[in-house]
Amino acid sequence: MERAYISAGSNLGDRVANLDFALRSLNRGGTVSKVSSYFETEPVGFSYQPWFLNIAIELTTDLSPFDLLALCRDIEASCGRVRTFPNAPRTLDLDILLHGDAILNQEELTIPHPRMLERKFVLKPLAQIAPGLVHPVLKQPIRLLLEACSDPSEVRFFRRPPDAGRGSSGKS
Fold first, then answer.
1. Can you tell me the distance from the alpha carbon of 35 to that of 110, in angstroms, rounded to the nearest whole number?
2. Active-site hit among 3, 20, 74, 95
3. Structural domain boundaries of the chain?
4. What is the pLDDT of residues 126-138, one digit of tens each?
5. Is 95 a catalytic residue?
6. CATH classification (class only), 2-160
7. Does the annotation count 93 as an active-site position?
8. What pLDDT digit, counting tens, does each position of 72-104 carry?
């Protein structure tokens, strides 16, 4: 079993319901063991769109990185995601950030996620659930990578995860 970390975002439709759907659906591939708070985040790249809700998820899984990618794409499609252009508005976006200590650089999948260090909307939720997690290439903890991130976009607290009262919010 590996710990995989996934960034989930939504800015179309019922954003909370879309993220909650992702959390329930990811359990098909393992066990969702930690979930960050929900953060409302400014769009990056294509700015003429609604703000996102973003979360970070820790999934304990025996799926390979490619099988997890297939599951994520299936969940996105089930939530109504249509891929139109890069950084387009979307009902659900699931990105694999890390998968154990895997380091992959293939056309279909790159792990660690190649742009995670440039995105505060990824690092802030991830640092909430795994501040001491070490980036497998840079050998630095996520909390320090967040501190060093120069992304000026706004990331603000929106709400606690749906089961924060049951100990799976990732707070320690």
1. 23
2. 95
3. 2-160
4. 999 999 999 999 9
5. yes
6. alpha beta
7. yes
8. 999 999 998 887 777 778 999 999 999 999 999
